[in-house]
Design a protein that fits this description.
single chain; mainly beta; four-stranded antiparallel beta sheet
Length: 123
Amino acid sequence: QVQLVESGGGLVQAGGSLRLSCVASGNIVSINNMGWYRQAPGKQRELVADITSGGSTNYSVKGRFTISRDNARNAMYLQMSNLKPEDTAVYYCHADQIRYYSRGYYYSTSDYWGQGTQVTVSS
């Protein structure tokens, strides 16, 4: 009933920019904290940045990436600038709690992930 769908990944040269989007679909009531994670080949998934429903942010990649969200659209974004080859990874959208409405009832789901979008930065 709920999906997180990422888009905006692709192939870009070093120094370039990309904007990732994550949109939650379904009868969404609210989404708590959201975040972007990435996983490079052979490495563990790591936090890139996260954002609370109130807009407070936290970054592990500082200075080049900007996270934002639009609660009215159930969307989150990641503006990535000055990309480097080491940024190459699959980027995942995450929500720690989603409340939604289905067939007359309210539900809550935790630790929800999107399917990922590939970002490849060439040198």
